[in-house]
Amino acid sequence: MRPSVFVPGHISCIFRPYRAQSVEETGSRGLGIRLGLGCHGTARKRDDGKIVIRINGEESEASLTRYALESMRLDSGIEVDLKHDLPLQQGFGASASGTYAATLCAADLFGKDRSEALSATHRAECNMGGGLGDLLAIESPYPVPVRVHEGIPGLTGVTSDSGLSFDRLTLIVFKKPLSTKSVLGNPETMDRIIRAGDSAMVEFDKDRSIEGLFRVSNSFSIEIGLESEEVSLGMEELEEEGYNSGMCMLGNSIFSDVPKDVAEQMFQGARVIECSSFSGRIEVTRTG
Question: In CATH, what class is 2-163?
C-alpha cells in the first residue's frame, strides 16, 4: 500500500515578505485562495538509496523537492510521483504543493511526524527560491486564509479565516511564466512589495468581501509593477465586461469571477481553467 495525498494549490492575492535571521520565522503575511485543484502525490520506498522524482510522468531533478526530501534524512531511497492539475510557475503555489505532497508521503512511509514534512518543505521554499507563504496558506483549513504571522505552520506561522470562499473561480493562464526566484531576489522589488503589502492588508481589513478582495488584489499588483502586458490588458478587458479579476502572485495569470465559457471566447490564446476554493485538512491515505 502506497501513501497518497492531494495538496491544494494556492493563489497569493497579497503578500508581505518577512526575512528573519532564522528560517523558521521567515515567510510572509497576506491573503490568498486555496484551490480545489493542486498536486496529487504518491510514493514508495526504494532499495538503492536513490531519490527519484517524477512530475507529470517525467523524471525530474526537482531541486526544491529533492532538497526537502534529503533534509528529512530518510533511511532508504524513495520514489515520488507528483501530478499537477495546474500549470507550473504560474502563481498557483506548485512548488509548495508538490514538495509538501512529497514530504507528507515520505513522512507516512518512514513513520515520521507531519511536523517534519512541514519543516522540510518550509526550509526548501525559503532556501531554494520558492514562495515565502504558500505552504502556510496551503496547510490552513480555511478556503481563503489570511496569513497573520509568518513562519512554519504550527510553529510560528499562523492563519485566520477571512470568512470568504469561492464556489466558482476561473483561472486564465498566459503562456510565458514568471520566475518567483528572480522577483524575490531583487531588493528594490522586495521593498515595493513590502510597502504595498502592508497598505493592501490595511485596506482589506476595512472591507472583507469578495469585491474587497479583488479590489485590494488589483491595487497591490499595480503598485508593485509586476503585471505583464497580457495580465494588465486582460484585467482591463474583464473590467470593461463587468467582471472582477486579479493577478495570481507570482505568475503570468489571472483569477476572475468570469464564467469559463466567456473567458475562453475572450482569451483564445490562453489556457482557461475552472475551479473552486478548497477547505479542510490535508490527509494522507493509502492506495493499492
Answer: alpha beta
